[in-house]
């Protein structure tokens, strides 16, 4: 059995993903969600988990530093890479939405300033709508931008809507549903076909139990 390396981000994705992986019978004795370790191996040495920034997961997989990556569809849409996207894990569910002040109107004649962690997704969305934009790339706390007059609207992740609500903002339009995807390096899929398919089969079985 060849060892599989799986890249994912610490935090909300890892906490749920590791529960799913452990459902397949794999066990990571050292893992706990407050650990500062960045690399874990299961007790039978089948899987090596590496923790990287969410936006870097597709890069590790494209370059072959990881065979498999678990990453939000938002990251894959913003910066597409040459990888296979083979499975939806049904975790990390949220939406990418346009948000702003209640009653803000977005029309074809608008010229909008848009703040986002996802400038490419935002640009493509408004181009499709024939709306001219000035896109401002931010790396977090995006909801602040309309409040201080830096942007008319934002494009950001919405899950419960609490962050928007607490900042006096509302969803103006939904762009796309997001969840965590399993991506695979193209060469790894050729070389480690059996291992990868077995792993995915076990994950599917775990998902069925979960549903
Ligand atoms: N509020 C949320 N609810 C559900 N899923 C979310 C939420 N926010 C982000 N996600 C999903 O989880 C992934 C990782 O989010 P996370 O907040 O851990 O990363 P990040 O904000 O990009 O990284 P960092 O906090 O290190 O800057 C996102 O790419 C997205 O797919
Ligand atoms: O609808 P909610 O349940 O409130 O979740 C949405 C919030 O979660 C994410 O932020 P995150 O915690 O990753 O912080 P950051 O992007 O500002 O770093 C996202 O960017 C929203 O701000």
From TrEMBL:
Where is each ATP phosphoribosyltransferase catalytic domain found? Answer: 53-203
Pfam families attached to this UniProt entry: HisG
Keyword terms: Amino-acid biosynthesis, ATP-binding, Cytoplasm, Glycosyltransferase, Histidine biosynthesis, Nucleotide-binding, Transferase
Query: What are its E.C. numbers?
Result: 2.4.2.17
Major location category of this protein: cytoplasm
Give the source's domain of life in one word: Bacteria
Reaction catalyzed: 1-(5-phospho-beta-D-ribosyl)-ATP + diphosphate = 5-phospho-alpha-D-ribose 1-diphosphate + ATP
Tell me the route in metabolism or biology where this protein functions.
Amino-acid biosynthesis; L-histidine biosynthesis; L-histidine from 5-phospho-alpha-D-ribose 1-diphosphate: step 1/9
What would be an example GO MF term here? ATP phosphoribosyltransferase activity
Q: Which CDD domains match?
A: PBP2_HisGs (cd13595)
Q: Where in the cell is it found?
A: Cytoplasm
NCBIfam families, per database record: hisG (TIGR00070)
What is the UniProt domain comment for this protein? Answer: Lacks the C-terminal regulatory region which is replaced by HisZ.
Write out the function statement from the record: Catalyzes the condensation of ATP and 5-phosphoribose 1-diphosphate to form N'-(5'-phosphoribosyl)-ATP (PR-ATP). Has a crucial role in the pathway because the rate of histidine biosynthesis seems to be controlled primarily by regulation of HisG enzymatic activity.
Describe its assembly. Answer: Heteromultimer composed of HisG and HisZ subunits.
Indicate the family of this protein. Belongs to the ATP phosphoribosyltransferase family. Short subfamily.
PANTHER family hit by this protein: ATP PHOSPHORIBOSYLTRANSFERASE, ATP PHOSPHORIBOSYLTRANSFERASE ATP-PRTASE
**Protein name as annotated:** ATP phosphoribosyltransferase
Q: Which organism is this entry from?
A: Sporosarcina contaminans
Record gene name: hisG
């Amino acid at each position: 059995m060849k060892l599989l390396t799986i890249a994912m981000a610490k935090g909300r994705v890892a906490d749920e993903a590791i529960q799913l992986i452990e459902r397949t019978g794999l066990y990571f004795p050292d893992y706990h969600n407050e650990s500062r370790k960045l690399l874990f191996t299961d007790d039978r040495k089948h899987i090596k988990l590496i923790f990287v920034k969410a936006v870097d997961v597709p890069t590790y997989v494209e370059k072959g530093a990881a065979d498999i990556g678990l990453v939000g569809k938002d990251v894959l849409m913003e910066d597409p890479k040459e990888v296979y996207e083979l499975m939806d894990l049904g975790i990390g569910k949220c939406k990418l939405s346009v948000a702003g002040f209640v009653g803000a109107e977005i029309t074809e004649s608008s010229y909008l300033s848009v703040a986002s962690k996802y400038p490419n997704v935002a640009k493509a969305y408004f181009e499709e709508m024939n709306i001219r934009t000035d896109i401002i790339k931010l790396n977090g706390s995006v909801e602040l931008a309309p409040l201080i007059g830096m942007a008319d609207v934002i494009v950001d992740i919405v899950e419960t809507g609490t962050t928007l609500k607490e900042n006096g903002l509302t969803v103006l339009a939904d762009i796309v549903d997001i969840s965590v995807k399993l991506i695979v390096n193209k060469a790894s899929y050729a070389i480690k076909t059996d291992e990868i398919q077995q792993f995915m089969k076990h994950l599917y079985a775990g998902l069925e139990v979960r549903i």
